[in-house]
Amino acid sequence: MSESNLKRLLIARPRGFCAGVERAIDVVEQLIRLVNAPLYVRKEIVHNQAVVVDFQARGVVFVDELHQVPDGSTVVFSAHGIAPAIRQEAAARGLNTVDATCPLVTKVHKEVMRHAQQSRHIVLIGHKDHDEVLGTMGEAPDTISLVTSVEDVEELVVPPGAEVAYVTQTTLSVDETETIVAALRSRFPHIIAPAKSDICYATQNRQDAVKELVRLGIEHLLVVGSANSSNSQRLCEVAERMGTTATLIDGPKDLPLGFLFSHDMLGLTAGASAPEHLVQDVVQCLQLMGWKPEEVGYLSEDVSFQLPKELSTYTDT
């Protein structure tokens, strides 16, 4: 193949697992070894089908609600966080719990509790019915409103005279969130903002990496991630907002090869809950089809979080 006909695959860095996802997966990995009984996880530990299927094959049981967990069992709360009512239900039933909530999600929960204690009306920017949003809203259900768009801001009803504060889901589009925040500031000039952005470092870094791929001239972006992964969906949207088409795939089996063959320069990234082995499987498949992979990186990440203290109550048997 001549240089002029070279097919290039630009692979974004950073990509894939963030510190919160690594921590949550590590929690389950350790408990599989330490618990001499079926291990239960409420909701998906992270929003990635391959991760969930792998754990299921190793005996982990995923449930939607706590009533599906037998008395005396150990249950892990997912990385997305839970409402206080869930924690209270688990305590009332005497379940053994390990909380794998991402510390950056916990930060948002604490902000909501602080605003509620100060009688402020809280606006949560996020996506309806997402596990993280449900948990966050559960901290102050009577004094929190969810907005997903500028249109929602225009229709927002706030108690007369109330101080207003906003928080955000951690996995949103940075650019879209800025637009919604601008609309909130227009309606509520004195609205109280988080001291530091609630959108997590990994979400922002992966979106910035996608922007770099688009600036380098990719014709189509492939995002490794599951359909229920908010941050993976946002990566597709970032490219599309810049005029580049994008496809969300769980792995190589989902590659639209017939469509891709007409493109000489592809981009590839992965959502924060997608394991690296899936990225490498995609790379290998595309490499066999004629694309030459090359990493495009603009920064490295060295963030890590301590494991939950509840793990210390378990010992090797």
Please give a structural write-up:
This protein is of the alpha/beta class. It has 3 domains: 113 residues, Cobalt-precorrin-4 Transmethylase, domain 1 (3-Layer(aba) Sandwich); 84 residues, Rossmann fold, CATH 3.40.50; 84 residues, 4-hydroxy-3-methylbut-2-enyl diphosphate reductase, catalytic domain (Cobalt-precorrin-4 Transmethylase, domain 1, 3-Layer(aba) Sandwich), CATH 3.40.1010. Helices cover 38% and strands 19% of the residues. It has 11 helices and 12 strands. The strands form 3 sheets. A 5-stranded parallel beta sheet has the order 10-9-11-1-12, sandwiched between helices. The protein has a 4-stranded parallel beta sheet with strand order 3-2-4-5, covered by helices on one side. The model has no long low-confidence stretch (mean pLDDT 96).
Helix/strand layout:
Layout: E1 7-13, H1 19-34, E2 39-42, H2 49-57, E3 61-63, E4 74-77, H3 84-92, E5 96-99, H4 103-117, E6 121-125, H5 131-137, E7 144-147, H6 150-155, E8 164-168, H7 174-187, H8 201-215, E9 220-224, H9 230-241, E10 245-249, H10 257-260, E11 265-270, H11 276-288, E12 291-297
Parallel strand pairs: 1-11, 1-12, 2-3, 2-4, 4-5, 6-7, 6-8, 9-10, 9-11
